Each structure stands twice: as structure tokens, then as C-alpha cells.
Amino acid sequence: MAPTLLYLLKANGVLVLFAAAYYGLLRRLTFFGLNRAYLVLALLFAAVYPALPMPALLPAEALAPVPAAWQQAAGVRASVGTLAPSAVIDWQLVGLVVYAAGAALFVLRLLGQLLSLAWLRRTTRPATVLGQPVRLLARPAAPFSFGRAIYLSQELLTNMDELVVVLRHEQAHVRQWHTLDVLLAQVALALAWANPAAWLLRRAVLDNLEYLADRAALQTGLDRRAYQYSLLHQQPGAVPAPALAFHFSFLTLKNRILMLNQPASTTRQLGRYLLAAPLVMALALGYSGARAQAVTAVVQPATFHPNIPANALYYLDGQPSSEQAVRELPASTIYNMDIIQDEPAKIKQVFGNTTATSAIIVTTQANANLPAVLALVDKADLGSGYSHTPVQVNVLVPKALAYITQHYPDARLSGEVVEAKRKTTGAVKYHVQLVSGKRPFYVFFTPQGDFISEHR
């Protein structure tokens, strides 16, 4: 699985767990400060968790470390599925492109909202109301706050009772830096737009910040009943506040009044926080034992090819190595693995005088471009030294087709032809898959139709 896709799956999976724990255990508690910390932790942890060097909720495949698994070339034992994946649509790439396009649109939307607020600020004028610095709007609009600024319309200044309530509420948003939470939730939503949990967590962040502001306003000495009546008397006809801004809104009015009358949560209910965040983090970071072994699994050559003889040669990053060293490599570090099997003459040609009939050549990601690696790949004509591209059968010249007809009269073309281009020189050869009975095999030709070799 592509690393980026794996990252997204892990991050979105953790968001689902955090959202489920919040709505199942914490949503109705009146510990609004703890809820705020929990929600911020959820968004931040989901962003960094996939990059943590420990067992993952969705671990990478332990026994598929080779990006172009068992690439076919001269000297590598062929199999039916070796080249087939390159001929089909890469749905992982398609999914990533669609996901990235959606995220880009949401990021642009967020930037547009910020620019809209910046433009609106330029149309306001500064003033002081009841000792509080504010910015007065040039047109009628609902009161709101963003960052360190509170925005009021001229009409609101004529209603002193309502003005006091509005100012106390918006002052709480400003004083407690609630805008930072909103921006974090909006960024998380933009990057995880396809995940319903991201939408639920954003709604939870906004609601909880309103609860915090309501409680802070009441703690300044406002009457609880009068405060609720003031919320109910807010006029819905005013122009709505800009997106991202805190404002008196009917969207969450029902829940706000419900929480204003909610009995204070008991200290015993604090235990729910010991279940929520730690449980989610334990699920994400745990999975030790068998899961940890899967993530830290090492390459097992015999697992890939059970017929590899005991006297096989092992090369690591272009240098002689041992079976033990290859087995102990973490799967995540492997870039490529090539096998030369049952070709003693070629092994002697490449590696010198030896009785070995097979060789395993492993390259790590960190050393894929070392001169020694590239030299060995070219000398042994390994599959990893080529880039492979599916092409149409009609690229074969008549000379190659005549050779196939003459030497393989009982075989048929499978329709699979792959152009192999050497990475260092650009030299091209073609892999042609033939099928005799039910058994496929490969024949290699130059672009001029000259026979190179066959591999069964």
C-alpha cells in the first residue's frame, strides 16, 4: 500500500475512534474545559500518529516490501502474476488523486473565508463600547468575534440589555483564544473531508466552545434565566456573521440552552476521560505481540521462494552478504529483491567461480542508487535495472512473430507484452508472454526482433 494512502487510513481511522468515544462518553458532560482539551488532542494526535515509529492500527504488509515485486527480467524466474499488476488501473493512485482534489478544494474554501474576514475588517471602524474595544460594522449584521476582535452592528448599541449579554459572551471567546480551536478544526476537516468523523468533531468543537463562552458569561454575574431569555430573543433577521466567526446562532441554540440547564457533572464521571482518550490511544498505539511482530517482520527469502537452495548466494546493496543478514532486514527498509535461480552458468559469469545455482540480490531504500548496486544490477541484467511499461502486441516486428511461430508452434500469445527499458542506458527489450497448455512462460526479444532468451 502506498505510504500516503496508509497515512490517510491511519489518521482517519483514529478520528473515527475519537469521535465515537466523544459522542458516546463525553458529549453531555459539563466539564467543558476537559472536553476542549480532548477534542484538540484528537485532532492533533490523528495528524501525528501515523508517523510515530510504533505498531499501527493499520500496519503495513509485512511480507510485501518490494515496490515492484519480483520484476521480470533476464535471470529472474518468471511467474504469471509478475507483470500483470502494471497492466491494470492503479486504483490506489486514483483514490489519492480524488482525495487530494477534494482536500485542495476545502483548503481553497478555507482561504476564501479568511480573505472574506480580512476584507470585512477593512470596512469596519474601531470603537469602544462599555469599556471594550470593538469594531463597528457598516451594515446590519449579527454580532460575532474572530481572533482578538469583536464585531458589532450600530443597531445593537441601542439595546443595552442585549448588548451586555453579547459583549460578555464574545469577550469569553476572545479571552480564551477559541479562534485557534476553530481554525484547527477547519484545517482537519479540509484534510479529512471524506471522513464523517471529521465533520462530527468539527461540530463538537464549535458546540463546546459555545458552552464555554456561555458559562464564562454567567460567571460574570449575569442572571441565568435572563441570559437564556436573551438568547431566545435574538432576532433571526440580521445578516449572518461570516464563516469561521463566533456569533450568536440559532444553529446550536437548542443545545446551548440544554447545557445551561444541565446538572453539573459529578467527579465520579471524570472516570470517563480515563476511558476515552487513553483507550483510543491504546487501540492505536498498542497491538503489540502478534501485531508488533507483523509490523517489524523481516524478509524471509524462503517464504517468497521455497525452492531456494541452501547454498544460494546473498548480496545486499551490491556487496556479498549472508542469508541471516537478509532475513534480519526490516521489511520497511527493502526497496527491491531480485532472484537468479537455476542458472549456474550465468551465476559464474556474474559472481565468479562458485558452485551456487541461485542468487538473491536485495537492495535497501537508502542505498538504491549506490554505484556498487547499479553496477551489479547492470552486470547481472536484473529486473530492477529496468522500467516496465505494458505495450500492444503490434510493437513486435514480423521477425519476432516468425520466431515465435517457428519455435513455439504449440504456444499462443497471451496478449501481454511489456517494454523493458534499462534505467542506465535506455536500451529496450520486449517481454512476450506465451502460454503452452495452462503454463505461461516468457520470451525476450530486441526491438529488431532478435531472440534474446526464454524463461519458463
Automatic annotation (TrEMBL):
The keyword Methyltransferase does not apply. Pfam families: Peptidase_M56. Keywords: Membrane, Transmembrane, Transmembrane helix. Residues 145-260 form the Peptidase M56 domain. CDD domains: M56_BlaR1_MecR1_like (cd07341). It comes from the Bacteria. The keyword Transmembrane helix applies. The chain crosses the membrane at residues 6-25, 37-58, 91-112, 273-290. PANTHER family: POSSIBLE SENSOR-TRANSDUCER PROTEIN BLAR (PTHR34978), SLR0241 PROTEIN (PTHR34978:SF3). This is Peptidase M56 domain-containing protein. It comes from Hymenobacter ginkgonis.
